[in-house]
Here is the input.
Amino acid sequence: MSFAALPEDPAARVTRVVLPGRILLLRATGEIDIDTAPLLRAALRPGRQHLTIVDLSSLSFADCALLRVLVPARFRSRLVLVAGRRHKVRRLFACTCTDRLFTFAPDVDTALRMAIGTAPPRTPEAAWNGRL
Here is the structure.
């Protein structure tokens, strides 16, 4: 397992952890907006990962800049997003109908179980409706 914190911005931080099985875990904290989105974009750089888990549960704010990073990344790698079903960032996905593009997990442990096949994948609709 390797661990790297990307260059810091006072408003945001993205931590990148490479796990066994070619799983990339990214943890974003703070705010993702037009000024801080490049941190997340850099962390999502193409690599040899089989799956990328992006933990959004510690974000205090996100706007469409988050979507401008995640939507293209979704087509390059299999993504699982972590955000509790009532987390404010989830509203961004629902309001823009981009929630249908992603698989959501309520926490990192569930996302990892989904990655290794011990938890069934959840549809965005099930995640949004609280049936996780």
In short: The longest strand covers residues 51-62.
